[in-house]
Design a protein that fits this description.
about 425 residues; globular; about 75% helix; mainly alpha
Amino acid sequence: MDPFTLALLVIIALALLGLPIGLSMISGSIVYLFMNGMDMGLVAERLLNSMYGGYVILAVPLFILAADLMNIGTMTDRLLHFCNALVGRFRGGLAYVNIVQSIIFSGMSGSAFADAAGTGRIIANMMIKDGRYTRSFAAALTASAAVIGPIIPPSIPMVLYALVSNASIGYLFLGGIIPGLLMGVMLMAVVWITARYKKFPVEEPTPVRALPGITVRAFPALMLPVVLLGGIYSGAMTPTEAAAVAAAYALLVSIVLYRNIGIKQIYGSLVNSARSSVAIGMLIAGALVFNYVVTSENIPQSLSLFLEGYNLSALQFLLIVNLVLLLLGCLLEGTAIILIIVPVFIPSANALGIDLVHFGVITVVNIMIGLVTPPYGLLIFIMQSITRAPLRSLFVDLIPFIGALFLALVCITLFPDIVLWLPRQFGYDG
């Protein structure tokens, strides 16, 4: 049997048996090296060399820690009160609050799962209290809104994409802002239509005199994205350093200003963040080793030559990539797609003159939509476990939200300036 085919079969078999995908990829890569009579030390050498130069990878555990620190304190509660004061007065107000809090919280966590499990869990429980919204609608909206998290900076998936593409993290972060806001607007449009059709309740409006106090209480939390992005785009910090500052800022605000967490909560946050980081780190390690195998087989170059034979335009190529990533997103975990599948497409994207920042944002949007697309849809099952919504009803309520996200993806694909306009204002020449 061909060594590469055998390696793939080993990876698939071990993954189906329950072995973590990172370890499965390392095992398959070792089989490939053994079958080709290559030095087994290449696995360790490849891994160490890639990790040694991968300073950007440090941003991942730091962003995870920052999100966890915000969830254990009252930062999320204060943000929810602020969002409710802004948009809670409209029909279906809590549904709008759900989307707005995702947009704001996305500027802090960089993770869809942190959004869903943190502020998303709180707002979903608020929505289903006293039967104001159905469990399935609350779960569907919260899962769909959490997708925005990794689009608006900071973004852990964009950090990983930068690792495999050498694209600028700063410009990727900038490129995600307008698409993330566009996705939020699309979801709000669905809520606006649904609220009138289903006669959603109107929340009691927040008195104008209470707005300054609510804003002041939420102000330290609202300043985190300003500190984070201001540091990056002013040149004062690298994205990795900004991630460290974000974690330190969240810790200081919770301890010094809000005074609501202690040593026990901090220790628990560190442990949870370490567990999440180790899981992602093992996946990165496996992908780096397996990418050596893929490169040895000249698969990226072969795919590029294959596509050139069809004389595809840049738009046709992007539509094919969208289709492939959406299908894979229904079956695979997003990090694995970025680290294993996306590098295969990058040479072809370069050959067709597709901007790598534009391509990166499209990639991340596709993968995030996969989180709410059956049958994999991790966010679906997270919210289903939180709200205990019937799965069938949840899938039905997801349909219009997935349609809105698809429409946003089409706009981002057809009109690159949606992604590239803001980076160009900060000196990007792509």
